[in-house]
Amino acid sequence: MPSLTMLDKIKQRLYQIEKDHEVRILYAVESGSQAWGFASQDSDYDVRFIYAHPQDWYITVQQRRDVIEYLDEHPLDISGWDLRKGLQLFYKSNPPLLEWLQSPIVYLEQYTTAKKMRSMMQSIFSPQSCMYHYLHMAEGNYREYLKGEHVKVKKYFYVLRPVLACKWIEKYNTMPPTEFELLFNDQQLQDGLHSAIDRLLKRKKDGEELATEPRISAINEFLENEIIYYTHFVKSMPKVSTNMEMLDVFFRETLREVWV
Questions:
Q1: What CATH number labels 4-121+242-259?
Q2: pLDDT band with cut points at 50, 70 and 90 for residue 107
Q3: Cβ distance 153 to 216 under 8 Å?
Q4: Which of 69, 120, 160, 175 has the fewest CB atoms within 10 Å of its CB?
Q5: Where are the domains of the chain?
Q6: Which of 219, 102, 218 is nearest to 163 (CA)?
Q7: What is the pLDDT of residues 137-177, one digit of tens each?
Q8: Strand 76-82 and strand 45-52: pairing?
């Protein structure tokens, strides 16, 4: 959890963004390792937000930029999506956006936008779409970080988390929680595997760097088997359709709430 000093700094930066861009920030959260529960002392703060322009901004034939980014303000990495872009991605059951809505660290929650989106989340949730996202993340991170005889041990979490998210989706058919420990504690893993992951988690939380070490065979074998399993499983999942008109109404209602 960010310190009070950092919380104040983040909020001040968000209010300045509102002034500089003439927007209203509806919702701002932590989305990276701070929210997942594996932050180290030198971890950045990955601040993500949804914002809205005044109503007339949307009435144009021009394509307008729908992202605000400040990525080089270490330790802050700040990025936001315009409300319309956010709702287009919400319609597609975009996992990063759904994770924002469940983040345990909320910097700003103004207006009723986020609350209403959370109430709609299960109706737009696509288990298949989200599982593809987490599966591709697990495959890519495994290939990049964990294939050698010696690996950067902290990178195990960047494969474990998406694999456990796939297992959550299969079990509950809902969006997985953002926090790693909630995913991990929900699983009935073999004792040896559970202990190996638990030891890594304790070392990470105690502030160890977890640099390059010999690979942990029990964890590698588990991850490889799960990736193979979900590569086949995801193809059999049903597709989900969402009512775009519902989101059009919500978009207009939100603009009226924010700017009237």
A1: 3.30.460.10
A2: very high
A3: yes
A4: 69
A5: 4-121+242-259, 127-236
A6: 219
A7: 999 999 999 999 999 888 999 999 999 999 999 999 999 99
A8: parallel
